[in-house]
Amino acid sequence: MDERNERGTSPDQLKEYWEKLKVYSSYVILLGLVGVMAALVSFAWLGELNIIGQVLLILGLALGVLYIALEPQIARRAIAARQTRYGLNALIMSLAFIGIVILINLALYKYNARHDFTSSGEYSISQQTIKILANLDRDVRVIVFMSQNDGRRDKLESLLEEYTRHTNRLRYEFVDPDSRPALARQYGVTSTGTLVFEAGEKRQQVQGTSEQDITSGILKVTRAEAKRVYYLVGHKEPGLEDSAQTGYSKVGNALRSNNYQVAELNLVISGTVPADAAALILAAPRTPLGEREVPAVWSYLRNGGKLFLLLDPLQTCGLEDGLRDEYGIVFQEDLAYDPVNSIQGEPLMPVLVSYPWSQITKDLGLTFFPLARSITQTTPSPASVTVQKLLQTSTQSWGETDLNTPNPRFDPEQDIRGPLTLGLTVEKESAPTGGPSRLVLIGNASFASNVAFDQQSNGELFINCVNWLTEEEDVIAISTRPPAQHPLNLMPNQVPPIMFSSVCLLPLLVLGVGVLVWWRRR
Q1: Rounded-to-integer distance, Cα 264 and Cα 228, Å
Q2: Tens digits of residue pLDDT in 80-120
Q3: What is the pTM of this model?
Q4: What are phi and psi of 3, to 5 degrees?
Q5: Which of 35, 304, 383, 501 has the greatest count of CB atoms below 10 A from its CB?
């Protein structure tokens, strides 16, 4: 039996087959590239490399190895070429950079390190919330009933993850109410986006995904009892249920969402301020308090009460004599004019960009006050009284005392030179019972009306004042930080040049450089 029969195909025949296979080497590498590209496209489309993608990738790589074996000279020349060396160097550097990024991310994930690079800090939580989380004395569970395709889900999950970084007493889970309707019915959830907070036997639903909503939900299930705030009525004040532009319905909603029990109080009927009052609010009364009401308010204050008084120009409340006699404080009969810092150049709508130091205004943004009056302290405070300026206009402002002039101008003999004090706080330590009394006095009530409450930081200022009055300083300034907007406003004559330069000029420039490089290397 000859050698071919004993050992199968002879070496000469194998060599002949190999040479014939080299004819198809270009097709081999082409199929290999197609296989690798198909695997990459499959991975990008599906987000994972399934069995088909794995087969295509292995087949493509195998065909690439086969091509190198078929054409070793071409592979050797390609590897030795300058362009290949540059490409390999670039590939190695890219892989090294990707590896470093992966290692950094793994280290950050292991040590739970995060940093918010947004200008508005929308993915961070305030120091007040951090303090509340540090003082939690019981476990809190948050169940988020939200559908899988809800656009708010990713941002909310990132925010809740930030909460868990500051306490081990908070845990959360997301539940799709469509997939688990029985659980949604058990918790009384009827709409997606509902957050349920549980701590022991307490349970609270919240409709909102901001830091203020989440922290408020935590407070409602962890604090022993919500404090009660009374809103004085009977003097044609804006109503807490009035949704008109001049109404105060947003004030009522904000107080309730900040864990306050809110009730209306008519002193003509009750005669006294209830003992459970954490604070009393009197806003924009069109008629002054009656003879029975004024003594009731002062009796409440002298026993450690808390009063939030907001008076628009020309309004009287009946408490002016007591404010002057006990604290030396006077609401002036003027209008605050500020030609420098104002809304849309309207000097009767002063804007405050900075504040005297106060726990209320710490970290507070811009606020504005339509038709405000100034407040002055005409006599020094007694030793037991601390008066602190809260809101001040710019040095170019003044208090116009001629309220009927069509063209107001500063008159040094009659008007009050700025900066004007639009708001101040009073604290009296000599209350015999009930602890120190506190007052917040603001010469404007329109800043908290429905039309202005959500503008700038007006609503935040109102809630901060109530928090300070009720001695809830630890929750002051917990507010929503909306994503920063950086719009590019263009004049009509600026649009064509920008369109031409970006759509036509830059692509043509890149094309021209490419043609020039090709021509020089040709």
Answers
A1: 10
A2: 666 666 666 776 777 678 778 777 776 766 565 566 656 55
A3: 0.63
A4: -65, -40
A5: 35
